[in-house]
């Protein structure tokens, strides 16, 4: 086990026939049922990743429509396009969908597709759990938008502060929809995080020690750990405490009975602030990948980059109170959280400097993906600057809950999440579809988006100084906020136009784009060592890694490891630190039980809005799904203990 | 970028950058300091990015190899940049904390104390006093003397609200079950608009409050007038209006001292005619606006708790006359 | 176990082994996908339609009634007894029945107008409890409306002219929800105040407090 992996001096050089026979066998092993049933039962991380990405973008579009309606309403003072009741639903669903159904899950979705390819393995860890996570997420998203379109959209803000969202002030089932959507998405996020941690730590290609994994993989590893620690906080607060207060009259948040409305805020922001970093740390990973490829050199300062990611992940948990400076917080506490909020700018700053150094010493090619990566630096840094400002308590107390904050976090999220994400779309689209996206449309998309974002959100800084609070459905004409609001609305049309260009580009390129080939960008990562799109088994033989940029360092000769079974879904398990081959593990095949389980969960949580008995029914349904999921499938002949045969104990080591 | 700000001149004053008191003043200078620092840092960073791209292009045009041996130079550059970031951030932190410390303590032992209670969607204002006769209640309008610190005791009846008068001080949340306090001081006379800054439900957008800073002697006059019970109706129309008020729906929610109407559900109307606005800073206090507000409040603030009042025209007229007599 | 890693093979040779650069999208797969989409879309429509049916009444928020609801107080029949031939009793339908917002408004007004002063939070005090299944003057919407507007002997005052009809109907919807006559999904589980007694919102009928108030027999309807 401790013997280092050696590359045989004389390759086995299997004959073409042998390779073809193995490929044919893999095709049989990974065969899908085909049709609808195949779609339902698929556990292929690429199939699930693709629909995950598409689903996230669908929610993005719907939540964007909400934003467009809100901007229309605010374009003029005292306009009557939507009333306050509808407006409150629109902005709440906009925020909730963008946070819970787009920004975090789209990162999960890309990771589901990319991580196994980038670490050079055949599958994601726990493929059935992955399928379950997707279906849970899908049900949650459908539930939120069905709620909105049936006048049951949550209307108390994406933060749902009690007592406004409590049983007395939020009649009906609107807030319950919100609470359960949060639960659905948290479940999906948690299972994805667990899969990612295991995939990254235990399933890397031989030789890909922790100091050689791509920065994007690092960012997903950090984020997955953050999810594991942050999400339970909000899941507990929304599912258990808020939903129970509303359904069975517990008193978690009722001050009169010894509960505490501030408890909600602490639990929510203990999740809510790390959430921001959970969204944009993968964005940093995207940018690192893109800049690396399009400057043609390895990212400068790899250890600094990795340490920055990890430090950000830790410090992100020490900032949440800066959302609550206007509540009773002792001065020492405020000082501590101010200091932490200011200093978290250091690791991000370090990354930006490293990228600049990389560009300086590289040979940048300005493709659409690269433009989005640079746009990220330009836009996100503004959000970072205002972020440092509002860490200051006196200044925050002036601009907190005003349009200044709206401007700030749109700069952070559009800059830190959406710019890198669009860049990632251009960058990995050829890997996913086999075809390149149009660069010409891509540049249109970039410039429209860049202009649109700045025209929409920059004026909002000024509106905040002019005293315009957030979450208002209208304002009085004499306040003088009309001009800047109109400007922002015009900007929102430019954003809409850019997104339409993007959609056109995707559709056209998917059907008739230029065929890409395995590695159109001359990129260094392992995901480019297989065909585009990759086969169901990703790699056969499994690649072996000798450096941080395998495809650049190994020239034409990529070392590979053979010996993984082709007659079953076998993956190679490697050690966590050094990625030495450790074990072989058979993965389960296609299954419809994850969907059944997701439906059981869906019935439970949706039913629990109306009656606590749903949990009893849900328990029974889940038990059935569990039984089906875990039903013994028999063992592979090779694994059976023949009489007199000594079991291979090393396998379980 | 702030050249556009003068667009709000002449509008109700609700701007962070037109401070009228020591608290907002200090925050404003902190902001300019932060803006200048951040702009410099931003420009330097973007300049560096631009320069890096240009450098790479020049090298490419000259056909030079990638300068892998420049790692040391780059390490030095990045280290320097990170160090500079840390220094700038520490300077900002120290400045900010020192400003923050000066804002908390109230600079006087027994300041004027105002109990401010947030309710969906208006402000209940009670001026505290050592004697019960000295206490009085009004709504949606606060008068303060110029040059004197005023202490606010904040509470909420239903959900969380937030009191924010940008010209005077930062905001503070009004949380049901918690009593918070804050203070400010107005240095120049004027009408400063304040608005609820924490989302509080369907009419969050129309929950405003006017802070009127005036010279001490004018303030004293105002206090004396507010302490007095309501004017008694003199002419017959006003008397009829008073009857309409007391016999009908109005008295179920509103109070007028000196009459049998004493409900605390809605704003106190004892001196309603002396106020500048109606419906929590939404309408000007004119006879027409008052009539519209009484007859169809849901048109102005959909979802507000004031129900519509279908009164016969003569009754409405009398009621308006009566309410307008409550100076 | 077999563990024979470490075999070299160049990328080019990989390609020559069948991993070509062309992309083949099997036509069968695509048609299956579009069929999926159609079905999924149909399912979604069905779900939306069902959700609309169940939620439209519960979730509507009618802020502005125009024209304001007529006052049917005068036409409401308090007693089923009547002289002469049998007539159809017209029932007034409360539009707020089953509407969560109206029930919550009713709850607020119940406290604002001091109904709680006599009826407490439904448990009864000076006045009869409203959470049990005994109704002295009837449990119908129009009967409760009449009780509120006209008052009843021995204590229940008349709120005629004091509370607009719209609000009376909201209070009616809330009062009926106290004893479970309104769908449970429209009711809020609790208020943000002290509970009258623990778990009063979910008290089963047999343990509900027996009313302390009962009018003289002669005044029972």
Describe this structure in words.
The complex is a heterotrimer of chains A (653), B (327) and C (221). Chain A has 653 residues and is an all-alpha fold. Chain A has 19 helices and 4 strands. Chain A has helices spanning 16-29, 35-41, 45-75, 84-118, 127-149, 174-202, 215-248, 261-295, 302-315, 331-343, 345-361, 368-389, 393-399, 403-433, 439-465, 482-512, 550-553, 593-607, 613-630; strands at residues 542-543, 559-561, 570-574, 581-586. In chain A, the strands form 2 sheets. A two-stranded antiparallel ribbon of chain A has the order 1-2. In chain A, strand 3 and strand 4 form a beta hairpin. Chain B is of the alpha+beta class and 327 residues long. In chain B, the strands form 3 sheets. In chain B, strands 3-2-1-5-8 form a 5-stranded mixed beta sheet, with no helix packed on it. In chain B, helix 1 (22-62) packs antiparallel against helix 2 (71-103). Chain C is an all-alpha fold and 221 residues long. The longest helix of chain C is centred in the first third of the chain and has 33 residues, at 27-59. Mean pLDDT of chain C is 69; it is low at 1-33, 67-74 and 197-213. The chains are: A mainly alpha (653), B alpha+beta (327), C mainly alpha (221). The interface between A and B is large, with 89 and 92 residues.
Query: In terms of structural class, how would the helical and strand content of chain B be classed?
Result: alpha+beta
Order of helices and strands of chain B: HHEEEEEEEEEEHHEEHHH
Strand content of chain C: under 5%
**Based on helices, strands and strand pairing, what is the structural class of chain C?**
mainly alpha
Largest interface: A-B, 89 and 92 residues
Main pleated-sheet profile of chain B: 5 strands, mixed
**Which residue ranges of chain B are poorly predicted, with pLDDT under 50 across at least 5 consecutive positions?**
1-10
The number of helical runs of chain C is 6
By DSSP (H or I, 4+ residues per run), the number of helices of chain B equals 7
- Report mean pLDDT of chain B, rounded to a whole number: 90
Order of helices and strands of chain C: EHHHHHH
User: Spatial order of the strands in the main sheet of chain B?
Assistant: 3-2-1-5-8
